[in-house]
Specification:
Aspartate Aminotransferase, domain 1, Aspartate Aminotransferase, domain 2, 2 domains, 3-stranded antiparallel β-sheet, 13 helices
Length: 359
């Protein structure tokens, strides 16, 4: 019997044995017909997850690499980013490291994004080639209305591409790429997709690809134009993580059996379970009610010794997270995402009560 604690951090999250078994299948050549069939299967199943009929692809890389790919391929000189936590700040910093002129609207950690404020910022920033923001800021659990923000951006700067990080919400909450008019959306394999780390999934609009073809200095490995051209032939530019592709295909088929509606409802149920438990024990949400995440609970810890709490809970077989970055010791986070079920969460919360009594 494994003594490894069950992961309830906001990623990597718990991976089902069936998914690990899929990773253990014999590796195949990445230029053969079997790989083409695998890519074709992933393509048709990944599009509904993003809510698109346009383009999707998979990178053997982390979500951070997809950030950089978006910048290098979609921005020649100037772009804008909205930050309200550690990961959105890191995406903005990535643009600066790529040598792009970066306008930043820096908001308080824990705040969801106000579409009107984003629109005013974009208009004041002047001509920008793209605007980027995070749907669910994993460091704080602040969840924002992507559709409303996208409308505000288009009104302020119709020419700007819209980039969205949905790393900790894709497959945990609805995403409507086409309906909302998004140009690039990205997520990672180790969160709501409930796979081992190592893949980034990306949705691309035709507008993004048309613009990207004129951008110079896109590089090679992260050139999304080249990646999409190869993906359309059921190939990848370089050797992919074949065994993780098996796992992704297995998981996407599982989503179809569960249905996305049921999956999203399950995440909402777990979010409410954590919320009720936390309030009853004196741990309010770090973010406002209307911006609470359906996948990531970030709770204000008050006088709780978070390091001891996390350590004690881990000893009882469940691993959660302390606060992230400057919030360490002030908050704790529970990633109720992926393939966790309400009955699993009930066990975690019972163990949390035992830990609190011991403290």
């Amino acid at each position: 019997m494994s003594t490894q604690p069950r992961l309830w951090i906001p990623g990597p999250t718990h991976v089902r044995p069936e998914i690990l078994q899929a990773c253990a299948r014999p590796t195949i050549g990445h230029r053969g017909s079997a790989m083409k069939s695998l890519v074709a299967s992933i393509d048709q199943r990944l599009k509904p997850l993003f809510g698109t009929k346009q383009h999707v692809l998979v990178l053997t890389a982390s979500g951070s690499a997809a950030w950089e790919a978006a910048i290098r391929c979609g921005v020649q000189e100037r772009w804008a980013a909205v930050t309200h936590g550690a990961f959105s700040e890191r995406w903005a910093a990535t643009g600066k490291e790529c040598g792009k002129q970066t306008s930043v609207l820096a908001l308080e950690w824990g705040r969801g994004l106000d579409p009107a404020a984003v629109g005013r910022f974009v208009k004041a920033a002047g001509p920008v080639e793209a605007v980027a923001f995070v749907e669910n800021e994993t460091s704080t659990g602040a969840y924002s209305d992507v559709g409303a923000i996208a409308r505000a951006v288009r009104e302020a700067a119709p020419q700007a591409l819209i980039f969205v990080d949905c790393v900790s919400t894709l497959a945990g909450a609805p995403f409507q790429f086409d309906e909302w008019g998004i140009d690039l959306a990205l997520a990672s394999s180790q969160k709501c997709l409930a796979l081992p780390p190592g893949l980034a999934v990306v949705a691309l609009s035709q507008r993004f690809l048309d613009r990207a073809r004129s951008v110079t200095g896109r590089g090679y490995y992260l050139d999304l134009v080249r990646a999409q051209e190869d993906w359309s032939k059921q190939q990848t530019p370089a050797t992919p993580a074949v065994n993780l592709f098996y796992a992704l295909d297995e998981q996407l088929q599982a989503f179809e059996r569960e249905t996305l509606a049921a999956r999203f409802a399950r995440h909402r149920t777990m979010a409410e379970m954590v919320h009720r438990w936390s309030l009853e024990r004196g741990f309010p949400s770090f973010v406002a009610e209307e911006h609470r995440s359906p996948t990531t609970a970030c709770r204000s810890a008050g006088k709780l010794d978070t390091a001891t709490f996390v350590k004690g809970l881990k000893a009882r077989g469940h691993e959660i997270s302390d606060g992230y970055g400057k919030l360490k010791g002030q908050t704790f986070r529970i990633g109720h995402l992926g393939d966790h079920k309400p009955e699993d969460l009930a066990e975690l919360l019972r163990a949390a009560d035992e830990t609190l009594r011991a403290l």
